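Support request, priority: normal
Reporter: lab tech (M.K.)
Component: structure prediction queue

Hi team, I submitted a job for Histidine ammonia-lyase from Peribacillus cavernae yesterday, and the status page still shows it as pending. I've pasted the exact input below so you can check whether something in the sequence is tripping the parser. The sequence length should be 496 residues. Please let me know if I need to resubmit or if it's stuck on your end.
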Amino acid sequence: MVELTGDSLTLGQIRQICFEGELVAISAVSMGKVVESRAAVEKIVAEKRTIYGINTGFGKFSDVIIAEDDVNDLQLNLIRSHACGVGDPFPEVVSRAMVLLRLNALIKGFSGIRPVTAEQLVTLLNSHIHPVIPQQGSLGASGDLAPLSHLALVLAGEGKVHYKGNVCTTQDVYRQEGLKPIVLQAKEGLALINGTQTMTAMGVINWLEASDLAYQSEWIAALTMEGLGGIIDAFHPAIHEVRGYPQQIAVAERLRNILSGSKLITRQGEKRVQDAYSLRCIPQVHGASWQALDYVKEKLEIEVNAATDNPLIFDGGKTVISGGNFHGQPIAIAMDFMKIAMAEFASISERRIERLVNPQLSDLPPFLSPQPGLQSGAMIMQYCAASLVSENKTLAHPASVDSIPSSANQEDHVSMGTIAARHAYSIIQNVRRVLAIECICALQAVEYRGVEKIAPQTKSFYEEARKVVASINVDRVFSEDIERMAEWLNKGKWPR
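Reply from support: The job had stalled in the queue. We restarted it manually and it finished. Here are the results:
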């Protein structure tokens, strides 16, 4: 059980909740803050003070005053009209993360929701009822309005949900679970959708998958080093210490540890004086990507515990301020940075694949074929990797430098952060498949060299990987091998 406070959620806890199904609860202190914040909203309504989003319209309609009898209708109308998402739904794990992060933001006590609304979000998480949320339609500035509206619809008993492996109507699932819809009251609709939780949820899932993949890339690169007789001297600690980047130093150290005891790696001058950059510069390139991932992690850790709706309520309702914490620029830039960092893992991996399969670049059999000429071996696997790398270059174009005004120019600068996060996710999937191809090729290469000569750690890796993809003894449909290896990388537990 993870107790939520609104201030202390970690990426590790999000992994537990979203990937391992851990249950959640709201801390008593945080629920007290929710009660106080709600009392402030009800006082504002009773005193007929004019406050944005409580008794006014939204966006360009902020100057339209709403009658007291229409305040509740205003909130439901907001949710229904803003549920304009289109396209394929987000992965279910991302939907779960969105519910979690929205809950965590609301219980900080600055949003004015009722305790029953917070408790309904807890019920969705603990009952594994996850909103079906279309991926496209957010500008990432006035909050992730469209996707979060699809989340809020579920609280009101509308829309669709993922439930027990199926997509069902919320109404049917509520009936099965004995749940009642929430009747949204003053400010609650706005509080639910005015935030960055879509891009942040996608960003957290991205980071969790990307960091796993970054470690996996080192194991696969180490196996390639053995398959090509790479020169271990390039990973000597002195080289990396004199440059001074901690991430570069760490990558080199991990590679030395993984390759310890290998009889296939070489020393400079034994086979050649120095390796190509895709081998020699693994710590420098991977280390630079790790720098970016560390930056992204820092921003995500702030954002998952941030109050990002508008307006925010302070001092028991004495101070209600309209601001712009819903603007997704910090996460938009972080996701664009992540896109570049992850694309580089695939870029250098593809160059290592080329060295494994190109007979002009190594003494391995051409394309690692069991019968060169009659059988093509890994020839087209390299094509596939090259295609994915090229696609990543397009996806890595920054989304955060774009902006299109909305709401009649009231909202005249937007972040496009959710687009950045979605593209980062696509890049990560492509990187995993490129690394899967390198892994398949590296496994084949060390077999030609002699598996008995590889390092003890890579031997354990080799044995596990061979349970997933068999040796290439004859041409077959390698697409199936690539996908199976990618799935293994995605699900596997890896030493760090």
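Strands lie at 2-4, 24-26, 86-89, 130-131, 134-136, 160-163, 166-169, 312-314, 319-321. The chain is about 55% helix and 5% strand. Let us know if anything else looks off. Ticket resolved.
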